Structures
1.
Amino acid sequence: MSLTLNIWRQRDRTKKGKMVTYHVTDVSPDMSFLEMLDVLNEKLILSDDDPIAFDHDCREGICGSCGVMIDGIAHGPEQTAVCQLHMRSFKDGDVLDIEPWRSGGFPVVKDLAVDRSAFDRIISAAGFISAPTGTAPDAHATPVPKGDSDAAFDAATCIGCGACVAACPNGSAMLFTAAKVAHLGLMPQGQPERDTRVLKMVAQQDAEDFGGCSNIGECSAVCPKGISMETISRLNHDLLGALRAGAVPTS
Ligand code: SF4
Ligand code: FES
């Protein structure tokens, strides 16, 4: 396959960026999208050009490092992390626009790589439980209803990629925050700090440069882990409950 790629190039967050057109040939349908970018980068390096910066790590859909907009869709045409997207999803002769995540909360570091430390700060605010770990507890020492454990597991599959933010017209981080609040709030171990956790995490989300959620649903539509809009309902339920209970976050 031969493709024309219009790729966002930006030297750093202070410089203006622009789309630059590249042509790639001999692309195998079995290559991943990132491998296709690797091939382009090898050519750029051999011709003493600056390679295109993009984030990646596991390349197995589990770390959440990767992510670009392809023709305006976060992670591209399949509902998967872009490292799991293969070139067989495209046709010979396609022209693709490749851009970084679009959000004020994710400033561009370089080219297609963005700074997602805002997510780390939301987790640091309260996305954990405070408990002495001790030795490993006996299996089934803390019974958990099957429905709760399944829902908690589903929420915990969020890989923190940021596609939800990039897809949202408001640039909202609500689906990510909701997934992190839900996976702890559904488990018995998460109950003691349930109210203060949701208040602190939502406050940190609001302090970052993200927009508000207006239930559009683009986030869930592109989420590679299929985190549902119901997770946001659960967050709102917990948030209202904490506010009604008059919970006060402690540092
Ligand atoms: S909710 Fe989905 S799209 Fe958003 S960060 Fe988690 S895995 Fe990525
Ligand atoms: S590189 Fe780890 S999820 Fe894509």
2.
Amino acid sequence: MTRVIFVSADGENRSEVEGLAGQQLLEVAQANGQPLEGTCEGQMACSTCHVIVDPADFPKLPRASEMEEDLLDLASHVTRTSRLACQVHLAEGLDSLTVRMPGAVRNMQGR
Ligand code: FES
């Protein structure tokens, strides 16, 4: 089992869940009620599975493919540690992987 920590866009809520090695991060998110659409179900035709990886965990992930980088360019609230959850698979070295939901809705104060 690999532990994954999902953090809400505002940082207020943390949800610690478990997934299996090899399992797609998008599947783990959706199975645990995280608000990730993943419209194309991993077919690399949307960017609605965008998550922001904790900077401490980002170097542990295999590099994103060029296609993933191109799709991330279309996502909102992209950061230097953004990834597509359909392209990230759980693995032993990723225990406690922490990812934040990108901020989809912001109020007038920008929070
Ligand atoms: S689910 Fe569409 S690119 Fe990840």
